[in-house]
Design brief:
heterodimer, A: about 375 residues, alpha/beta, Rossmann fold, seven-stranded mixed sheet, 13 helices, 16 strands, B: about 500 residues, 3 domains, two-stranded antiparallel ribbon
């Protein structure tokens, strides 16, 4: 429930229902829980409050409180001029957002899912990404495109594709993908403040998940740097890179691997473009083995880029070929059993890590 | 619930055009709605109660079967005062009106389709006749001698600029060029009617707007030659001009993408409560793009102060308008989206000036979008990569170039006012020509942008990977200096 924060003060259990957007500071060292949805909502709220140029636009973001309730309460607080419910035209509202950005405003454009962004992709690439370069700095585009990306649960082929690789291949764009609530808050604030166009890839299944957040994260000036990956779990035997939901899978895989004596290092990429090549390479130079994990289609994916980067910069350090774990090379099927087989599971990551460590394991999952 | 039509006759579209008063721009058409009683998904009804007239009518279908209702009557309005007339309700029991989201609709037992093309096309506003003389009773905004002469000089400059740069491309001195021949009136007169606070979102055939705003011939030449002084730092093909200080957004090759941009900027101007509007230009072909439709729809919904100027010049490269659309041109599309529109003679300076002037006032004061369809002809080829004689008759092109030249037409008017002479004409033309030749010579000699401009402006700050690439590039240049081109400064 949005706005609800449970707080424990020195052993005293306190439950409060708070108005949207405000977050209680804690004066103890106990961690608070915050869902990714609350994190995104609070980040939007704080940035809109701090800068009157920031405004939100998209389908259902206003009266409906957001298709996934990310923008809950914002229409009420900021009014219809700053929270715009748009007609159903991705090409239209993306173009309009870019026009507003050319003028000097800071739009946050929401796509109901990034699958629908394909209808607006010309504006994202040709109008937003390239304008600063083509106009030689006269037209900057401080815009953020955000929305759920990748597979949800049982939504089929046209609602499940991951677009990280598509957008990350284009110079002029920055592409971010948060995993937990801290990522969501810090990266969204950084994206809104950034003068360049940013594609912000969220994940529908993560919206409802709760993560602990520190005081620092809850502060309204909190911001994460763009282009820096985070080592979620340190290890010395194998490096596993992942972003968004797959970070959770990688962490679970690491726990399983630990029991088998393999100490995995999990890298949460956070930023797909610019890719934090130095962190990835430093990790590979330490562990000598690399698994890349992503939900997306395998060909020309993020894993392919990471593999190329490591081969170019740390070839001599590799003790095993780089393993890429990706989604199946098929449009996402709807049936639950097939969907499960089309998306990487924790077991796939575990097996890949063992292969990288030259343990004998079967290549494919048992049916 | 079904409603049976008593008479099964051929349903053909019935249009009774109503000829309104021939004022500035009046057009009326009878619009009929098909009987939607039996299609509940046709319109969104509010819940119907047992006592509503709708139900009553259904229960007594016979009583209404041969009554003919009269429905929405739309009348076009004058340029500055808009009068909306709600449908006249006929006598009799046929005045069943129901509220539904969007407004009142009068029902009718007769099934009538709206015609796909009205028998009367939208009228075209003009002030000067083909000989540059004022048409009697023409309604227009007076222009002073200064403005008129300035407009004319700019049109001549634009024409000369085009001729000389086109030649320069043919000589291989620039790689590409797009002329505006035949559309000088649209360019200059519209620019003159706007203010310098208005934001311009061009397609690519509107350099005249930039010229009017003070872009110099040297600045035009610098961009075409892609030299160090080019504001675009040599990153774009010729004619992709852009200048922040003139509020002229850099030309982008993609068609019609500038139209929603303009709406976004207009919305921002409204939010900032500025006394300015956004203006965007596009051709007849550009109106087929999805962006055009989304933008007009959006502009109407958000009440954005934006002027859409369509240069309907008959051709989209080799596609004539008959292959581009089947509507009555572009002006009627505005109406479909709830945007006030007008059709204007695009080769008539005074008509364009008046229409844009009026449009701007409405856009800024009433926060509404306006669509202007300027009917004209693309005398030149689409670009230097095109030879239009391959798809259209050469004598058609010649006729428009000579008999319908907007520059000559306006010249006749200013001469008849005693504001111009043939001496002034030859003086102006030779002066402009000399300036242009000098500008080209100079632009050709200026060195190209430095190699560092390959990497800047991709992002706000130079990212580490590009910094590294530049470093590697410079190292390579140092190692192999004789392989590096002489005219690219380091």
């Amino acid at each position: 429930m949005l706005g609800t924060v449970r707080q424990k003060l020195l052993g005293q259990a306190l439950q409060k229902i708070l108005p949207v957007g405000s977050v209680l500071r804690s004066y103890s060292s106990a961690a608070k829980q915050m869902t990714v949805r609350e994190a995104l909502n609070s980040a939007l709220d704080e940035e809109m409050s701090a800068d009157p140029k920031v405004f939100l636009m998209g389908e259902e973001v206003g009266e409906y409180q957001g298709a996934y309730k990310i923008s809950k309460g914002l229409l009420e607080k900021y009014g219809p001029e700053r929270v715009l419910d748009t007609p159903i035209t991705e090409a239209g509202f993306t173009g309009i957002g870019v026009g507003a950005a050319y003028y000097g405003l800071k739009p946050v454009v929401e796509f109901m899912t990034f699958n629908f962004s394909m209808q607006a992709i010309d504006h994202i690439i040709n109008s937003a990404a390239k304008s600063n370069y083509m106009s030689a700095g006269q037209m900057s585009v401080p815009i953020v495109f955000r929305g759920p990306n990748g597979a949800a649960a049982g939504v089929g082929a046209q609602h499940s594709q991951c677009y990280a690789a598509w957008y990350a291949s284009c110079p002029g764009l920055k592409v971010l993908s948060p995993y937990n609530s801290e990522d969501a808050r810090g990266l969204l604030k950084a994206a809104i403040r950034d003068p360049d166009p940013v594609v912000f890839l969220e994940n529908e299944l993560l919206y409802g998940e709760s993560f602990p957040v520190s005081d620092e994260v809850l502060d309204s000036s909190f911001c994460l740097p763009i282009g820096k990956a985070k080592i979620e779990r340190e290890g010395k035997d194998v490096s596993i890179t992942a972003f968004s939901k797959m970070v959770g899978h990688a962490l679970k895989a690491a726990e399983i691997l630990e029991k088998d004596g393999i100490d995995a290092e999990v890298i949460n990429l956070r930023s797909i473009r610019p890719l934090d090549r130095s962190t990835i390479n430093a990790s590979v130079r330490k562990t000598n083995r690399l698994i890349t994990v992503e939900e997306a289609f395998p060909q020309h994916g993020v894993g392919a880029e990471i593999c190329a980067s490591v081969v170019e910069e740390s070839f001599a350090y590799l003790d095993a070929p780089v393993q890429r774990i990706a989604g199946a090379d098929v449009p996402m099927p709807y049936a639950a059993n097939l969907e499960r087989m089309a998306v990487p599971q924790v077991e796939d990551i575990v097996r890949a890590a063992k292969r990288a460590c030259y343990r004998s394991v079967p290549m494919a999952a048992a049916a | 619930m079904t409603f049976c039509l008593k008479n099964s006759r051929n349903i053909i579209s019935k249009l009774k055009p109503k000829v309104g008063l021939l004022s500035l721009m009046k057009q009326s058409s009878d619009c009929c709605y098909s009987s939607c009683l039996n299609h509940s998904n046709h319109c969104n009804f509010l819940p119907v109660t047992a006592t509503s007239p709708f139900v009553k009518q259904l229960k007594n279908p016979d009583s209404n079967s041969h009554k003919k209702g009269r429905f929405f009557v739309f009348e076009r309005f004058e340029s500055t005062t808009a009068e909306k007339q709600i449908a006249s309700v006929p006598n009799g029991e046929d005045n069943q009106v129901l509220n539904f989201p969007g407004g009142k609709v009068i029902f009718s037992p007769e099934m009538r389709f709206l015609s796909e093309s009205p028998s009367l096309h939208a009228h075209c506003y003009r002030v000067l006749d083909d000989n540059g003389q004022l048409i009697r009773h023409s309604n227009f905004i007076q222009v002073s001698e200064d403005i008129a002469v300035k407009m004319y000089s700019n049109m001549v400059t634009l024409q000369t600029l085009d001729t000389i740069f086109y030649e320069a491309q043919r000589q291989g001195r620039i790689s590409f060029y797009v002329t505006t021949i035949g559309e000088e009136a649209i360019n200059i007169a519209s620019a003159a009617a706007l203010t310098l606070d208005d934001f311009v979102f061009p397609q690519y055939r509107e350099p005249g707007v930039l010229l009017w705003r003070g872009f110099t011939l040297q600045e035009f030449a610098n961009q075409c030659f892609g030299n160090k002084a080019d504001y675009g730092k040599g990153r774009q093909m010729p004619i992709h001009y852009g200048s922040n200080k003139h509020k002229y957004f850099t030309v982008s090759s993609t068609i019609a993408t500038q139209i929603p941009h303009a709406v976004g900027a207009a919305y921002s101007l409204k939010m900032d409560k500025k006394d300015a509007c956004a203006v965007t230009y596009f051709g007849d072909g550009g109106t087929s793009e999805g962006d055009f439709h989304a933008a007009l729809n959006f502009a109407a919904v958000t009440e954005a102060p934006v002027i859409f100027i369509c240069r309907n010049n008959g051709w989209a490269i080799s596609t004539p308008t008959s292959d581009q659309f089947r509507s009555d041109g572009i002006a009627v599309r505005g109406q479909a989206y709830g945007v006030r529109s007008i059709r204007v003679d695009g080769n008539d300076v005074l008509a364009i000036y008046s229409a844009v002037h009026a449009a701007r006032k409405m856009a800024v004061n009433e926060h509404r979008p306006i669509l202007i369809e300027a009917v004209t002809y693309r005398v030149g080829h689409h670009s230097t990569s095109d030879d239009s004689t391959k798809y259209r008759p050469a004598d058609e092109i010649e006729w428009w170039r000579m008999a319908r030249d907007p520059v000559t037409r306006f010249r006749k008017w200013i001469e008849s006012n005693g504001w111009w002479s043939s001496e002034a004409e030859s003086q102006l033309r030779s002066s402009i020509r000399n300036q242009l030749l000098q500008a080209i010579q100079l632009a050709e000699k200026v060195e190209k942008p430095p190699v560092k401009d390959l990497f800047t402006d991709v992002y706000d700050d130079l990212p580490p990977n590009l910094r590294e690439q530049e470093k590697l590039l410079r190292e390579t240049i140092n190692r192999h200096p004789k392989d590096y081109p002489a005219d690219v400064p380091l």
